[in-house]
Amino acid sequence: MILPRQVWLAIEPVDTRLGIDGLSLRVQAALGWAPCDGSAVVFRNK
Known about the structure:
Largest sheet: 2 strands, parallel
Number of helices: 1
Strand content: 5-15%
Order of helices and strands: EHE
Shape: globular
Distance between the termini: 30 Å
Helix content: 25-40%
């Protein structure tokens, strides 16, 4: 099992219908780093 280096929690709801590509773009825009860097991001929706 490979564990992520960091786990980030999104505090605002996000539309999970965006799919993996749309969510990856949100991560890049909000945090300024590539979502494939070994970290995990947790999203929630309404």
